[in-house]
Amino acid sequence: MGYNSAMRYLEKLQAIQQKNDSWLCVGLDPVPDRMPLPALQWDDPVLPFNKAIIDATADLVCAYKPNLGFYLQWGAAGVVALERTIAYIPSEIPIILDCKTGDIGHTQAAWGRGALDEWGVDAITVNPFVGEDAVRPMIGERQDKAVYLLARTSSPSAWDFQGDLAAGEGLSAQVISASQRWQVAGHLGYVVGATFPKELQIAREMAPEANFLIPGIGAQGGNLEAAVRYGPAGTTGPVINASRRVIFASSGEDFASEARIAAEAYRQRINQFRVSTDGS
After folding, report:
1. What is the rounded CA–CA span in Å between residue 167 and residue 206?
2. Which of 130, 157, 259, 276 has the largest CB neighbor count within 10 A?
3. Any bridge partners for residue 147, and if so which?
């Protein structure tokens, strides 16, 4: 199944998940003080670093997720590097721009034109605090794109405002419940952290057809088995993200090969849980 510009997001995601036998997403989040020593010798280290990571892992992933904040810290050069990174990623692999945008309609429309049309990313993360106006300008008419609404973040302070999803109380429950009624052409998925496995199960029950972007399995110590068990929707697997533990697996000249080893280890662990879950 080849990629074409009219392919719907879930079709593209499912195709690469099958081809690479992977539910792993690698977060491309360059940090100045964690860049490997060889990269620091380059005048503009971000793009060549990202290229090396992509070359080493492109056959092991189902998506890449660059976080805008990590590029803004490099100033204009970082934004240029992000744009060129997006262009470098193989077209068959979905790109999720993690920027957690969330504003009124005409501002969101500008975000959509820039990220989804100009840069050509496949999906974008959205903070749903302002409501449906944050989503419709993105995927109201873009059938081949997706947004991932923040539903249950992996952060320790998620309880502060997101509430008790298990009790059906608070913002997380309201976001999932209300957004199920929104009429959009593209796909509406959810960010649900692996650090809250019970909430992950409940979110799946509340949104049985939505794709999940699941952070928190790496440095944050989330529950990978729960991500595999409750992440899938139908025949499409979740997007399980790992960033630091992959791209900064080594600070030496072997950083790319070590990133590949780390990505392969995550993919293998995910697939082992897939087998045990299917057999249970």
Report:
1. 12
2. 259
3. 124, 188
- For residue 76 the two structure tokens come to 């204009």
With 0-12 / 13-18 / 19 or more C-beta atoms within 10 angstroms meaning exposed / middle / buried, residue 215 is: buried
- pLDDT tens digits, 102-137: 999 999 999 999 999 999 999 999 999 899 999 999
Alpha helix positions (H), the chain: 9-20, 37-40, 46-57, 68-72, 76-88, 105-111, 136-139, 159-162, 171-179, 197-206, 224-230, 244-247, 255-278
- Residue by residue, DSSP assigns 160-202 as HHH-BGGGTBSHHHHHHHHHTT---SSEEEEEE-TT-HHHHHH
- Using CA of residue 87, residue 134, residue 16, residue 265, what is the dihedral sign? positive
Catalytically active residues, by annotation = 100
pLDDT at 38: 79
Give the integer Cα–Cα distance in Å for 23 and 238.
6
CA atoms within 13 A on the CB side of 175: 27
Count of alpha carbons within 13 angstroms of residue 44, beta-carbon side: 14
DSSP secondary structure letter of residue 123? E
pLDDT of residue 1: 33
Containing H/E element for 22? none
> Looking at the whole model, is its pTM more than 0.90?
yes
At 257, which amino acid appears?
Answer: S
Domains of the chain (ranges; CATH) run 9-278 (3.20.20.70)
